[in-house]
Amino acid sequence: MAFLCCAMLVMLMGFGSANATEELDYGGIPLWINRLQGEPTVMSLQGRLDPVWFRSNNPRSCPQLCDCPIQWPTALYCDHRGLTNVPDNLPNRTQYLFLQANNITSLSSSALANITALHWLILDNNQLQSNQLEQNSLQNHTHLHYFFANNNHLTSVPSALPVGLKQLRLAHNQISSISPGAFKNLKNLTLLLLQGNRLQTLTEGDFTGLGSLNLLDLSGNLFSAVPRHLPPSVQQLYLSNNSLTGLDEDSFEGLLDLKYLRMSHCGLQNPNVHRQVFNFSSLVELDLSYNKLTTVPRVPTTLQYFYLEANAIQEFNVTSFCREVGPLSYSRIKILRLDGNKMSYQQLPPDWVFCLRVLQRIYI
Length: 364
Hints:
This protein is mostly loops and 364 residues long. The protein has helices at residues 2-13, 18-23, 51-56, 352-355; strands at 75-77, 96-98, 120-122, 146-148, 156-157, 167-169, 177-178, 191-193, 215-217, 236-238, 260-262, 285-287, 305-307, 335-337, 361-363. The chain has two domains: 1-153, Leucine-rich repeat, LRR (right-handed beta-alpha superhelix) (Alpha-Beta Horseshoe), CATH 3.80.10; 244-364, Alpha-Beta Horseshoe (Leucine-rich repeat, LRR (right-handed beta-alpha superhelix)). Residues 61-96 form the LRRNT domain.
């Protein structure tokens, strides 16, 4: 079954031209497909089969501007059509609606009124604007699990989102604010993509209600410090490509389950990074590549993957990885990247192998 899931991932992300691949990025996080639940295994039918074939082999009604493959009777493909509005008279059997790569600017409450069991709504690469997104256009779709609106013109996170939402992908918009109470009922949301927007600060109530959030991507925004008031359930936090002025000892306070932290391209420098900021035992993977660090920050012995390439590191200090070395006192690091720094393999101290005794690969 694991092999089958991987095959689904490759099929989704690995076909078509370079432009098509960019359009099918879906916010940079792969989309896993559960074929046993009838989820469609392709996100677009463009260039696959002649639409005439679909119509001649499917007795069910289908909007003129869409394709309705017989393989997935609940999927409706209306992508890459130059549409400026959601088509009328959508079949009420529709559960998976693909509208990406059009010119849709608005979403009215009546556009999806006929669909009562919608599970996925894919609106990436359109022209959606916040002031043309009616507040209750999505709220009543309690079965909606995935809402994708990457690469649009939204300026705020929509309010009145459906309570059953599990993934919300709003990457590469123009979002500078979160509507009050936008997430208050989203207790099932596990993934939130907000990278490539214009967020500068977050207030205490912005993420209220997100009790199950696992992955939060805030990369490529305008933060100058690590945002406070993040959901304590977050295990994967991505903050790369923000111009951070520094890191305090309590920058990640309250994130007791944080395992994967990405902070590449943030302009970090040692004088402004507290030596204990990363020293929390839940951390498994830490990416600090492409910064301006001159020494290795102190990390917990539980860390397994550490990326420090393309900094200005000149020395290797064993105490950054092990406060002491003994039969049970050693670093669990498996992969360590130090390539692109100002040091060579010959500069490693002789006792480093006792600390990094389970290391599988080092790049230097």
